[in-house]
Design a protein that fits this description.
With 573 residues, the chain is an alpha+beta fold. Among the domains are: 106 residues, Succinate dehydrogenase/fumarate reductase flavoprotein, catalytic domain (Flavocytochrome C3, Chain A, domain 1, Alpha-Beta Complex); 149 residues, Fumarate reductase/succinate dehydrogenase flavoprotein-like, C-terminal domain (Methane Monooxygenase Hydroxylase, Chain G, domain 1). Strands 1, 2, 6, 7, 8, 9 and 16 form a seven-stranded mixed beta sheet that branches. Helix 3 crosses helix 10. 53% of the residues are buried.
Length: 573
């Protein structure tokens, strides 16, 4: 540990340098504000969930047809989200999509197809129009990183934020440490934006390797855990998400497969998706994953991806697209002796993540209002750690909205920042030093695997009252062992903090799941003891907040915006 403290004062602090974090920083920099970004990754251009690239972008473009307008898509949002959605925030995000899309294009991102010179738009995941642009986004994140650097933000790489600074329900900064140099930072800010992504490494996967995850394994619910500790309200945390991946290789790409015409077939060769949704393979991600899970439960597995019916031109596009964000995938298929052009390819269900339950415009995380602000003043959230999410475009748009909200907050606030409580700050570092001093303590790997085992065995994709209560008890038992966690080095100390955040999010998720006594959006929240949606009683948000003895839940009618929960007028459960 470096004994010296680095104290920084800034206008805006951004936690997370992915798409949402970079897009949040940009309007603040354009307004002439000072911005500090803390990011766990090594290089800003290649951090976040699409650091290596992305193959699709969802947006309304206002290109002329009635379906290509924000108003048309907004009308479909309630049905697309099974009526659990903050329509006010979702409408703001969808309404801003065309503007932010054009802005990202101005940064140098080329969304056009290289063969035709036009946008290659496809329909997928149950959306009512061809809103996805299929493109080569290998350099997408690089362009955002360049824009942030040109704005001269202070970027602290390999730096993990471990605690927010708050005073009288207002955020004014954070405590962080660099897990290469051992330096500690106290950053005071007039506004804080959390953009650290979803919660991964939370359940076991098919390969058994925790870091072989469908989504970026370094998103470990840091923002959700810190926001929760600071008193912010969370919502939709009971909803988990899974996808389909090639067996033995977790990767993104389901969007490209279904939008370009792939089929899913069971062991009998039956194309089964139409049994579950009239749109077949173009159903929502949640429906696709749930259908495959159900086929396995019925004894109809293995499940295969079948592309043999597709024309050569489409197969070429598919092969090229699938390697954009996982460039080693073609080599994996070659080494396995598998040719998806000529034979069905076995797929498996991915691990769970707390993200957005397999639907667009409903996120799982920190509840935000139409400016991206949480229930803690001057604390904002965007991307997959917030309650309105829409993939990469949702992160970009809500990130920009949160950045603009922070600008308005900073310009309107003339008061001085609170003084740092140095005793509290020292206590944070002392707890970290205790993990480094442990010689025979508990490995973070073992601790994490126990968390994953509890979530897989007692929560999973088919839930019961008894199982959820067992999960909560077991997760709270794990919490009592956290002081024993051992960090062998500074990198291990970062992993210790991640493992504690994963466990905390698992407990929040299990508690919210216990509260929602119905099944909603298939396997994203399936209660065996309440196997059907309850439209009369459960069109409600489950709000989670920190209590004296753990997570407390209450409900809020979806007829109200989540911002109503900030006034604490919801029903306590």
């Amino acid at each position: 540990m470096n004994e010296r403290w680095n104290t920084l004062d800034t206008d805006v602090l951004v936690v997370g340098g992915g798409v949402a974090g970079s897009m949040a920083a940009i309007p603040a920099l354009e307004a002439g504000l000072k911005v500090v970004i803390c990011e766990k990754g090594k290089v800003l251009d290649h951090c976040g969930s699409i650091g290596c690239g992305v193959d699709h972008y969802l947006t309304v473009m206002d290109s002329g047809p009635a379906w290509d307008t924000p108003e048309f898509l907004i009308r479909h949002v309630p049905e697309l989200t099974d009526y659990i959605v903050d329509v006010a925030v979702a409408s703001r995000v969808i309404g801003e999509m065309p503007r932010i899309f054009r802005k990202i294009e101005s940064f140098g991102v080329d969304f056009r197809d290289r063969q035709t010179g036009d946008y290659y738009r496809v329909r997928s995941f149950g959306l009512p129009g061809t809103y996805h642009i299929n493109f080569d986004g290998t350099d997408f994140k690089k362009h955002l990183g360049e824009r942030v650097r040109k704005g001269k933000a202070t970027v602290l790489m390999r730096t993990m934020v471990v605690q927010l600074l708050t005073h009288e329900n207002r955020a004014y900064g954070a405590i962080a440490f660099n897990f290469r140099s051992g330096e500690w930072f106290v950053v005071r800010a007039k506004a804080v934006i959390l953009a650290a992504g979803d919660v991964n490494r939370i359940s076991r996967n098919a390969s058994g390797l925790a870091f072989d995850s469908w989504h970026i394994p370094y998103n470990t619910g840091d923002a959700q855990a810190m926001g929760y500790d600071a008193g912010a309200a969370l919502a939709n945390m009971e909803s988990v998400e899974a996808t389909l991946t090639p067996k033995g290789f977790s990767c993104q790409g389901l969007n490209a497969l279904v939008s370009l015409g792939a089929y899913f077939v069971n062991k009998a060769g039956e194309r089964f998706m139409f049994k579950y949704d009239a749109k077949g393979e173009n159903a929502r991600r949640a429906v696709i994953a749930d259908a495959v899970i159900n086929e396995y439960l019925l004894g109809n597995g293995p499940i295969y991806l079948d592309c043999r019916h597709l024309p050569q031109e489409m197969l070429d596009r598919m092969e090229y697209t699938l390697q954009v964000d996982r460039y080693t995938l073609p080599a994996f298929y070659r080494q396995k002796g598998v040719n998806f052009r000529e034979e069905p390819v076995e797929v498996s269900v991915s691990e769970l993540s707390i993200r957005r339950s397999g639907v667009y415009f409903r996120g799982s995380g920190l509840a935000v209002d139409t400016n991206g602000e949480t229930s803690v003043q001057a604390l904002y959230a965007a991307g997959d750690c917030a309650t309105v999410s829409g993939g990469i475009s949702g992160a970009a748009v809500l990130g920009h909205i949160a950045g603009e909200g922070a600008v308005a907050r900073v310009r309107g606030d003339k008061g001085a920042l609170p003084a740092v409580d140095h005793a509290d700050v020292r206590a944070v570092r002392e707890r970290a030093e205790q993990h480094l001093a442990q010689k025979n303590g508990l490995s973070w790997k073992v601790f994490e695997d126990r968390t994953r085992g509890i979530v897989t065995d007692f929560v999973g994709v088919r839930r019961t009252d008894k199982g959820l209560r067992l999960a909560i008890d077991a997760l709270r038992g794990l919490a009592r062992q956290q002081a024993e966690l051992r960090a062998d080095d500074l990198h291990g100390l970062m992993r210790v903090h991640e493992s504690k955040n994963i466990r905390m999010n698992a407990e929040i998720m299990a508690t919210a799941s216990l509260t929602r006594r119905e099944t909603r959006t298939g396997s994203s929240h399936w209660r065996i003891d309440y196997p059907a949606p309850d439209e009369a009683n459960w069109r409600k948000f489950v709000i989670v907040e920190r209590g004296e003895r753990g997570p407390l839940t209450r409900t809020l009618s979806t007829q109200q915006a989540l911002a109503s929960a900030f006034a604490r007028n919801a029903a306590v459960v």
